[in-house]
């Protein structure tokens, strides 16, 4: 069985789904252990894709399984887990049914293989379809309310590849070189699947990968003109690169030495400069105040559900409350490090109001409302001057991650 092509990748995908659904791990955390024996890049990509599709379409895959069984399988049973994987391979990755059976049933060695074969074959004979958009878990639908349908629709399609350009004035040149579309100066969007390191300009450090929504907070600090900025909770560093490219003298702070190595590598690749500080923002104190502070705070990251569908299943009220408490503490500290007249931008890649609007309501600095003319077409500030994005926005252009962004003056 070990020699069946694709079997090891499917076994890894099965382990990843189990780690997310049963132990509450992130998909990235689960991948580390589950894929340690996979050497071929194609196998690693297949395992990740299968696990992500299962998590994205979980409720709908379960509905199909339940429609073809006389007695419902327990939610945590291995036959259900394997059938989810088989259906995701057939319906989402377009793997031929015979190949799905050949690589799926061995995962049930010593188990009810006949049952799984019968359920899968029944659904294939019926040409059972998935709905146009994934069905979100009930608790998630309740939290996201009126936005849920648009977000779910955005989950049905793989997100595109967004690049932030080092030189915004060269947007037209890079669009001609790489193709794609631009949603704002300094941005380029390419179809998903491009081999990033092989694209023109990568080795020369002319751009870096960054979701378009994630580029908005740094844009709202404007040109640095040599002034000092603090990128608080900086890793993996896309916003540090932006601020440096915008002319700020950047201090990039994060407590993860490992993740800051990626920032060091990107600074070297792009030729941009920043002072890197590995420290805990809850204990660190600056020697002097800053002209600008960007706090992209730790959060539940539910706004990244297009790329990380694990957040649909492992985030709940407890995790949201824990993150909100940390965010409030970080906001209060950051506000005290700002020069008079300086700018503070707060951002989270979360769709939860407890981490966004509720946090902004606690800040006692003078509001510096985001203006409509600062934003790309299709996005608009709220009445309070805050910005809320979600994956259902800019759908015709490929969507974007969910973010909350607010700004104040010291």
Fold and architecture overview:
This protein has helices spanning 7-23, 27-34, 41-56, 58-67, 78-91, 97-104, 113-125, 138-144, 148-155, 171-178, 212-219, 238-245, 257-270, 311-314, 317-335, 357-360, and strands at residues 161-165, 187-190, 207-209, 228-232, 249-254, 275-278, 290-296, 338-348, 366-367, 387-389, 403-409. It has 410 residues and is α/β, with parallel strands linked by helices. It has two domains: 7-125, NusB-like (N-utilizing Substance Protein B Homolog, Chain A), CATH 1.10.940.10; 215-409, Vaccinia Virus protein VP39 (Rossmann fold), CATH 3.40.50.150. The strands form two sheets. Strands 4, 5, 6, 7, 8, 9, 10 and 11 form an eight-stranded mixed beta sheet that branches. A three-stranded antiparallel beta sheet has the order 2-1-3, covered by helices on one side. α13 links the parallel β5 and β6. α3 (41-56) crosses α5 and α4 crosses α5. The N and C termini lie far apart (65 Å). The model has no long low-confidence stretch (mean pLDDT 96).
């Amino acid at each position: 069985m070990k020699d069946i092509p694709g079997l090891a990748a499917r076994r890894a995908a099965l382990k990843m789904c189990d780690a997310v659904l049963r132990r509450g791990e992130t998909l990235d955390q689960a991948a580390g252990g589950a894929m340690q024996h996979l050497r071929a890049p194609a196998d690693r990509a297949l395992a990740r894709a299968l696990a992500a599709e299962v998590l994205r379409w979980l409720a709908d895959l379960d509905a199909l399984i339940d429609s073809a069984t006389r007695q419902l399988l327990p939610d945590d049973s291995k036959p259900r887990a394997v059938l989810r994987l088989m259906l995701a391979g057939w319906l989402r990755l377009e793997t031929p049914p015979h190949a799905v059976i050949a690589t799926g049933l061995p995962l049930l060695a010593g188990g009810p293989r006949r049952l799984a074969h019968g359920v899968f074959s029944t659904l294939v004979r019926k040409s059972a379809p998935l709905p146009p958009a994934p069905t979100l878990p009930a608790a998630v639908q309740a939290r996201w309310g009126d936005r849920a349908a648009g977000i779910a629709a955005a989950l049905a399609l793989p997100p595109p590849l967004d690049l932030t350009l080092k030189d915004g004035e060269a947007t037209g040149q890079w669009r001609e070189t790489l193709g794609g579309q631009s949603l704002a100066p300094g941005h380029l969007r390419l179809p998903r699947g491009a081999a990033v390191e092989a694209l023109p300009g990568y080795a020369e450090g002319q751009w870096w990968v960054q979701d378009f929504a994630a580029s908005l907070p740094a844009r709202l600090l404007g040109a640095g003109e040599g002034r000092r900025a603090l990128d608080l909770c900086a890793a993996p560093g896309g916003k540090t690169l932006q601020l440096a490219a915008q002319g700020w003298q950047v201090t990039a702070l994060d407590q993860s030495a490992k993740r800051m190595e990626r920032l060091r590598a990107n600074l070297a690749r792009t030729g941009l400069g920043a002072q890197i500080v590995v420290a805990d923002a809850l204990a660190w104190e600056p020697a002097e105040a800053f002209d600008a502070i960007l706090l992209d705070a730790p959060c539940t990251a539910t706004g990244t559900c297009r790329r990380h569908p694990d957040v649909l299943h492992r985030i709940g009220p407890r995790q949201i409350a824990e993150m909100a408490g940390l965010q409030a503490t970080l906001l209060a500290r950051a506000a005290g490090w700002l020069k008079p007249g300086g700018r503070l931008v707060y951002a989270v890649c979360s769709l939860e109001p407890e981490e966004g609007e509720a946090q902004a309501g606690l800040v006692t600095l003078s509001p510096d409302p985001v203006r409509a003319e600062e934003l790309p077409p299709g996005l608009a500030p709220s009445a309070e001057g805050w910005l809320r994005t979600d994956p259902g926005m800019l759908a015709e252009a490929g969507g974007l991650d969910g973010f909350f962004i607010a700004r104040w003056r010291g």
